[in-house]
Amino acid sequence: MNAKSENWFGHDVKPGEAISTELVISESYSSRDVAIPIRVRRGLNPGPTVFVTAALHGDELNGTGAIRSMLGDPSWELASGTLLMVPVLNVLGFERHSRYLPDRRDLNRCFPGNTTGSMASRLAKVMFDSIVRRCDFGIDLHTAAVRRTNFPNARADLDNPTCLKLAEAFGSGIILHGKGPKGSFRREATAAGCPTIVVEGGEVWKVESSVADCMLRGVFNILKTLKMMDGPPDIPEHQAIIKQTKWIRAERGGFMSMHVAPGDSVVKGQALASNSNLLTEDQNRLEAPFSGIVIGMTTLPAVQPGEPVVHIGRLANPKSALRHDQHVASDDVQRTALQHLATNVQVTEPEELPSS
């Protein structure tokens, strides 16, 4: 039986139709509407309702690039269900090139929100009620924070079987376990009955083609797994499950020489970065405390003691650990991302340290 017409944001959307609309979330100082643009696309047949959002942090734009690629590509079709595509969720942060809202609050700590709280809480309430509570599944696209980069990875509450299914179907190659912080979009959406995953990849303030391609393929993979698109999903042969991560922090101030790149596999004791003064003297070295995968790292070579340098994830199954010369990238899309992200930092071979 064919799907019926649905009302989205004041518009009746028939099966097979797509509309561009807006969701009014607040008012400006001049009392004008503040709205987020949304594309609603429906398949001909009944099916799940899925949202894909980006720029919940207003400076994280790789997901925006991925969604815009979907919007501009006429070659794909939605066979069933309803898809909500939101290129920029945090429009107020986006317009200021900022992670945060104008009041410095992090929107991603304010869900599900309330109608009488702060501006951030009120925005969160409108978004949550209008989008999340009407959807069956969610995909939220992010990047690393400022001065950092991430190899594309999916993050989900793996104790939730549906979240695990979505994370595996996305096919990023790296899956991190976690519910997410209290008040975060994915945690509260999942708790409200809309299983949601987060995907992290790349840096802020830019659209990196290889990262956006990974995100685009992942969204299509999930839609195919949910039978909303025709065809088999394109999922890598191997994916790493990570349940423990650790930031390796600088021990001294100085200039870092990096010896690994995002996506690299490392073994316990392997050199990650070397630290020296500006005359390359007083060198010390940061080493991997366990075998695992480089999830992310700083892109700022100058550090002070305690600043994060390399983010490592420990594989959930130690027997599946890769050699130090292997990578998590097992297909062309992942390998392209690995090569691209490796150019964001200068990676050198470690020098021999003088014996004590």
UniProtKB/TrEMBL annotation:
Molecular functions per Gene Ontology: hydrolase activity, acting on carbon-nitrogen (but not peptide) bonds, in linear amides; hydrolase activity, acting on ester bonds; metal ion binding
This protein's record includes keyword Calcium: no
Domain Succinylglutamate desuccinylase/Aspartoacylase catalytic: 46-225
InterPro entries membership: AstE_AspA_cat, N-alpha-Ac-DABA-like, N-alpha-Ac-DABA_deacetylase
Family matches, as Pfam families: AstE_AspA_cat
Domain of life assignment: Bacteria
The keyword Acetylation belongs to this UniProt entry's keyword annotation: no
Coiled-coil features, chain-numbered ranges: none
Cofactor(s) named in the record: Zn(2+)
Keywords: Hydrolase, Metal-binding, Zinc
Residues that span the membrane, as ranges: none
Protein name as catalogued: Succinylglutamate desuccinylase / Aspartoacylase family protein
